[in-house]
Design brief:
The structure holds 2 protein chains of 2 kinds. By secondary structure, chain A is an all-alpha fold. Chain A contains 6 helices and no strands. Chain A has one domain. Chain A starts with a helix and ends with a helix. Chain B has a single domain, classed as Glutaredoxin. In chain B, strand 4 and strand 5 form a beta hairpin. The chains are: A mainly alpha, B alpha+beta. Chains A and B meet through helix 1, helix 4, helix 5 and helix 6 of A and helix 1 and helix 4 of B. Chain B: It comes from Planosporangium mesophilum. Chain B: Pfam families: Thioredoxin. Chain B: This is Thiol reductase thioredoxin. Chain B: InterPro entries: Thioredoxin-like_sf, Thioredoxin_domain.
Chain lengths: 139, 143
């Protein structure tokens, strides 16, 4: 169970980082963000931005809301983010900046929707992916 | 320069999408669909209750908890209302038949097994849910 403001804060930092990646086209920064996503997918405890939130931000915001958020959807979303940014880093570093641009744009869409609206795009896609997968496995 | 243009375009498009979503999510819409009685029966909606709140959830779904809490509370308070929660992943055939695209999706089903209203993405407000239950009771009673 998580303080729901933590993932929102993390998504805000992520959005800023991804905008910088898009503007600079830096493959190394894309790779760094991929590592951050991987850590969050492994465990929210290890997610760097969430650590910053717990350490420095939460205390200034007053008591956490009673409403807690399950951590599974958040970890799943971090995994989806990792997939996108791994492709982006590979694209930028291997000299295919268009690949990097498209993958980073996808990740920014999800991160910004989470930061601004609390919407988990990865979670929304999950059921659709399952539906598609079931269709392919039955045919 | 291209990157900056792409960043601005992504942010604008995402903001528009998010605003549309915020306006629509959790709204209990009328659900003009043919009889889904057989599909619903496979999910445990057997006409044993006056109104059934059928909730589709999944493992990766933050608003499912809030929807569950609301429906459970309403089912406990209002006589004749039952709450059934199913894992969408385990019922993909039914999910497809009922055109469930997202979790949580909540169907308000009357005694005759007709989906009266549905809401997706977020739980509806308590007042709107109670109104939909009243509607389902009236519709079910006239048959």
């Amino acid at each position: 169970m998580l303080d729901p403001r933590g993932p929102r804060f993390a998504a805000m930092i992520t959005s800023v980082v991804l905008v910088v990646v898009l503007i600079t086209g830096s493959g190394w920064l894309a790779l760094a963000q991929a590592v951050v996503f991987a850590a969050g997918a492994a465990s929210i405890r290890y997610a760097p931005y969430s650590w910053i939130y717990r350490k420095f931000v939460a205390r200034h915001l007053g008591p956490p809301p009673a409403e807690r958020e399950p951590s599974e959807p958040v970890r799943f979303a971090q995994g989806v983010g990792f997939a996108f940014m791994a492709v982006a880093a590979a694209g930028y570093l291997a000299g295919a900046p268009l690949v990097g641009l498209i993958a980073t744009a996808g990740a920014l869409t999800a991160a910004f929707l989470n930061a601004a609206f609390g919407l988990c795009l990865g979670c929304e896609m999950y059921l659709l992916l399952q539906r598609v997968r079931a269709r392919f496995s039955t045919n | 320069m291209t990157g900056l243009v792409v960043a601005v375009a992504v942010l604008l498009a995402s903001a528009a999408f998010g605003l549309v979503r915020r306006a629509r999510d959790g709204k209990l819409r009328e659900s003009p669909r043919p009889d889904d009685g057989q599909v619903l029966a496979r999910l445990g909606v057997d006409g044993g209750a006056e109104v059934t709140l059928l909730q589709f959830s999944s493992a990766f779904c933050a608003p499912c908890r809030a929807t569950r809490a609301l429906c459970a509370a309403v089912a406990a308070e209002v006589e004749g209302v039952r709450h059934i929660e199913v894992d969408a992943e385990e019922h993909l055939d039914e999910v497809r038949a009922l055109k469930i695209m997202r979790t949580p999706t909540l169907l308000v089903v009357d005694a005759a097994g007709r989906v009266v209203r549905r809401a997706a993405g977020q739980p509806p407000s308590r007042a709107h849910l109670l109104a939909a239950i009243g509607e389902a009771t009236r519709v079910g009673g006239t048959r």
